[in-house]
Amino acid sequence: MTRLTVRQLPALRGPAGWNRLLPAEPPVTLYGARTADVLIVGAGFAGLSAARRMRQLEPSARIVVLEAGKLADSSAGRNSGFMIDLPHDLASDDYAGSGDDRTMIDLNRRAIGFAGEAVADYGISPGFFDRAGKINGAASETAAAHNQSYARHLESLGERSELLDARQMREITGSSHYLGGLYTPGTVMLQPAGYIRGLATGLRRDGVEVLENAPVTELERVSGDWRASTASGTVTAGRVILTVNGHLESFGFETGRLMQVFLFAVMTPELDNETISRLGGHPRWGITPSDPMGTTIRRIDAGQGGNRIVTRTCAALRPGMKVGDADLARAARVMQDKFDQRFPQLAGMEMEHAWSGHLCLTMNGVSVMRQLDDGLFSGCVQNGLGTARGTLTGMGAAELASGNSSAITAHFTGEARPSRLPPRPFREIGANAWMRWKEYRAAKE
User: Fold this and answer.
1) Residues 6+ apart with CB under 8 A from 152
2) Strand partners, 225
3) Cβ neighbour number for residue 336 with a 10 Å cutoff
4) 225 phi and psi angles, rounded to 5 deg
5) What does pTM read for this prediction?
6) How many CB atoms lie within 10 A of CB 302?
7) How many angstroms separate the CA atoms of 135 and 169, rounded?
8) Do 380 and 358 contact (CB within 8 A), yes or no?
9) Across the strands, what pairs with 316?
10) pLDDT tens-digit readout, 420-432
């Protein structure tokens, strides 16, 4: 393989709300021709983790990271910010893991530890990396039974959890919507844009070039190296790591095997003191739904960008990797309804931001972290677990590229190839109908 022409560039709807909470920064862009020892394409969780791990393994290496847009405007700055340590299988009805859960927990905690060390080393605000744990919220008897089953599963693994009743949930959230919840202490609650920007700032201080607004349109093998071309310049490197999640397919890999899914979120304006008083509850918390197709809710405070509530729900499969205005408008209407159900005392509050985020799933739940060609490596396909899984695949790809091995490389290189998907248009029609049915079945969740 000598030349890869990139067929599709990232395209997301709406502003990245988390990034809008932070001061604007001028982009650092690519101009002209550069050479490097290692080029990393993509500056999200995987790409920046790969850069940090490569700097640890090869302190003198010249490392360049290219980001298609502005830092933290991509999907890395659009997720809900839950860095979860425990089994979190999105294909399950209640997140219960499958396979070797103990191994996955240990790997997730390795990712969290790696991220925590970066926070300390780079002086990232602790509010952007909050070791607060999370709650699985239950709004129905079925969901409460899921939580009890999940608690038993965690107990069998030797993991701590705490079942909460309706009163406790109301005291925490200010909402009477929930019948109960399951608290687990190991999740880190991120301000995802703040964390990503903090990583980039620290890496730049360490001599890594992190360049923005530089979408790679072609990757070509030239005299034993790889040359990446953008509209404003080129980077030639002996080794390239692709950390582009679902856009791995845009580079010509795993075509017809990756599910390109978009999720949606809305964010309130800053809550004033009178609104906070009406709301009640604690100033900072995060709830994932007991049913994976339910609604995720976060409340944040000044340490994460202001007193606000973030609501996330709705999913759409788009093999062309683009969503339309109608997709975002429909999701915003649904999320307004979910917000009003949970907080009738704030019903009708107009949202300040609404956005889409791109994630990538495989039918058999595998990632693609391996060597793709001579000098070309991948840390992609996070299966909706972009914060922890992205960190892991980025770390592992850097280890592969530097000739090192670890428990991370052993796990991901031992996975099967992604399963082939049904042909289009049956893939899109069937998957979207299935997701709408799952959303309907999730009901109050």
Assistant:
1) none
2) 222
3) 18
4) -110, 175
5) 0.94
6) 12
7) 9
8) no
9) 262
10) 987 776 566 666 6
**Cα–Cα nearest to 310, from 188, 189, 399:** 189
Q: Which residues contact 9 (CB under 8 A, 6 or more apart)?
A: 68, 215, 217, 247, 250
Rounded Cα–Cα distance for residues 199 and 192 (Å): 11
With 0-12 / 13-18 / 19 or more C-beta atoms within 10 angstroms meaning exposed / middle / buried, residue 141 is exposed
How many Cα atoms occupy the beta-carbon half-sphere of 33 within 13 Å?
A: 4
Structure-token pair, residue 71 = 């830092």
Q: Rounded to 5 degrees, what are φ and ψ at 408? A: -65, -50
Tokens at 30, concatenated: 């690519």
pLDDT at 434 over 80: no
Percent of the chain with pLDDT over 70: 93
HSE at residue 258, side-chain half, CA atoms within 13 A, is 28
- Nearest alpha carbon to residue 202 among 51, 73, 60: 51
Question: Could you write out the three-class secondary structure of the chain?
Answer: CCEEECCCCCCCCCCCHHHHCCCCCCCCECCEEEEEEEEEECCCHHHHHHHHHHHHHCCCCCEEEECCCCCCCCHHHCCCCEECCCCCECCCCCECCCCCHHHHHHHHHHHHHHHHHHHHHHCCCHHHEECCCEEEEECCHHHHHHHHHHHHHHHHCCCCCEEEEHHHHHHHHCCCCCCEEEEECCCEEECHHHHHHHHHHHHHHCCCEEEECCCCCEEEEECCEEEEECCCEEEEEEEEEECCHHHHHHHCCCCCCCEEEEEEEEECCCCCHHHHHHHCCCCCEEEEECCCCCCEEEEECHHHCCCEEEEEEEEEECCCCCCCHHHHHHHHHHHHHHHHHHCHHHCCCCCCEEEEEEEEECCCCCCEEEEEECCEEEEECCCCCHHHHHHHHHHHHHHHHCCCCCHHHHHHHCCCCCCCCCCCCHHHHHHHHHHHHHHHHHCCC
Q: Each residue of 342-375: pLDDT tens digit?
A: 999 999 999 999 999 999 999 899 999 999 999 9
